[in-house]
Every structure is written in structure tokens, then in C-alpha cells.
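Batch job 17 of 40 flagged for manual review because the log was empty.
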Amino acid sequence: MSAYSDWKHGRDHLSETSVTFSSQVFDCCQLEHLSLYGVSYCANADTIIDGVFTVANLPRWRINFPKVGYDLTLLLYTLRLLALSLRIRPKVILLSSGVTGWAFASLLKLSGAKIIPVLHNTLWPEGSPPSGLIAATRRKGLAYFWQRCVWVTLAVSPAARRQVEDISGKHPRPIHVFHPTFPAANFASAPAPQSFHDRPFRIMFAGRIDENKGVFDLLTIAQQLQANGKDAYRVDICGDGPDLARVNQQIASRGLRGIVKTHGRLNRTELLVHYLDSHVVIVPTRTTFAEGYAMVVAEAILLLRPVVTCGVVPAGEMFEGAIVISKADDVHSYVENIEALSRDETRYLRLVEQARLLRSILLDDSSSFRSVLRSLLAL
């Protein structure tokens, strides 16, 4: 609701660093003179009716049942979306990652609408495809959806596209890769790179504070860096999430208060201050998470900050010239890479210059979500 209100009144949505995907949908519908019924599963039920635009929060009804409760929750939500679509009869349904299970989304074909999945996440963690009987069953459900129900797929990264192509087999549907868009006022001009010799060497994490995002690995990385070079490094953790309290507890119990500091959820202006104060940005996502892109990688590159990450993060593939790749789930690999980079000014500056060259890709609007979506909706 707040994103729509900000878009409607021409305000910058400062709680997000990038331009929100929802605002780009609003733009496309307005430019193409289309009506819109936008639905989120936000817990606070509410509806805004504004001419040909309706924006609604339709909370999920959570089913607490061992093992299958989450799947049942998604199935029920899909049925409610189907009932809504049968009532309003849309011509196109844009379906973002995480709203329903992709296999359940096959039910939406009964609405008669063209279905466009928007993948902000991969179908499985990159490099770690699932195995076993349950995974094989889920794969069949995904294959049916993409082979029989999808009109066009929008994917946030080549990794997401490859996985859809793998699932689709001999029956591919069109797939378009898009990239996130960032506010020109904050990112159009390249900032000054960080002074390499300024110490301590500062490492920034920005994102959801969740074990799957590697936050506890990050604490172990900090612990080893502290043991190897006292006062030589500092780690700033920006973001909120279910594991923030545990992270703060472990910072205290591991004796890391001198090297690690958490800052909670920040607005864009506050977050940019920490980006610009850092030497590198770390994205230690684990192989348990289906990362679709990792927006923080793009943000770091736009701000000329090299990134230390792993192969699970698809954005690393897209911007490899400014990336240091570590072994996934391997704390020692991250520590080695950070220590080596903090001592190698030539390599550090080379990564910064590569980031400068890559900025143009991220600032090119021709492959933005808005542009790709508008080209489809105009058909």
C-alpha cells in the first residue's frame, strides 16, 4: 500500500534501495492505458480503489500442520487467487516468486488469463539442484506449469533462465531476462572509490538477517579475521530479519563487539552511507537458499565497491570482473579472499575499475523490468 501511495504522489520510496518492481508495473499499466488489480499477501488486509487501479492486501490463511502446513497454505492461497481471477477476468496474470508454489500456480490457467511468472529467485539454489523422490515429484509439477500454463517468463538472472529452460525441456516458452532499476538521483554518478590504505579494512553486509543468507558464517569469518589481525578489520551488518536477535547475542558471546556492529533496517539514505564507508561488500549466501540475483551486488558495483561472494549468487556471474568468488559455505575460503584482497592494492583497484565499467549495464534502461514488461503488455 505504501509503495502505491508513494508512486501515486510521485514520492521516492526510500525504504527500498532500488526502484520497486510494483511501481514499474504501475508505470507500465498507466503508459499502456491498462486497468490493474494488484494483490499482495501482506498481513494487514486493506484495499485501495483508484479509478482503473485496485491495490489490495489479501493475507494468507496460515495452516499450521506438521510438514505439509506451508504447502497447504500456498495451495489455499492459490485457490483464493483463482476465485478472484474468475471474478475479475484479467487478460494477464503477473505472478511473482513466493506468492504461491509454482506447481500450484497451474490452477490459475483455469482463469483463461495469460500467465507471466516473474522470477526474483531461482527454482533451486544455483549449483545445488534438489534430489530424491519429493524433489522429482516437485519437478514434474514445475515442468507441467512451464510447459502447459505459462505464456512468457520474466527472469531476474541468467541462472533463473537456465533453470526454467532445464525444466521446460523440449517445450520452451519465451523467457526474458531483466535487471533491477536504481534511482538516478542516488546512482547515476559514480562516487569516489574507497581509499585502499584507510584502516580498518571495512566489510559490509546488507540484506535479510537470516541463517540462509550466511549471517552466522559471517560471524565466524569475523572471528577468524580478528584472530589473524586484531583491529585490522571491521564488519557492519545492515538489515533486519528473524535471526537478528541471535546474531546480536552471538556477537557478545563470541567477543566480537570490537569488530562487528549491527545497524538494523535502514532507509536508502542511511544504507548508502554504510556502502560508501566500506571497502568491500560481502554476500555469503548459503547453498540452502535459492538466490535469484542478490540486489546488494548490483548496488555495490554501482557504488564502486568490490564484492566477495560465492557461486550460489547469480549476480556474481553477471559482474564477475568486480567480484571475488569464494567457495560456497566455506568460511576459510572467505577469510583467505578477504585477507588477500586487503593486502593487494593493485587487485583491489582493478576490481574497482571493473565495477566502474560495469555500471553502464545496470543503468541501461532497455533491459529494465519496466521496459521488458511494457514491451509484452503492448502486444
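Reviewer: the log was empty due to a logging misconfiguration, but the result itself is present. Residues 14 and 192 are 23 Å apart (CA to CA). Unflagging and moving on to job 18.
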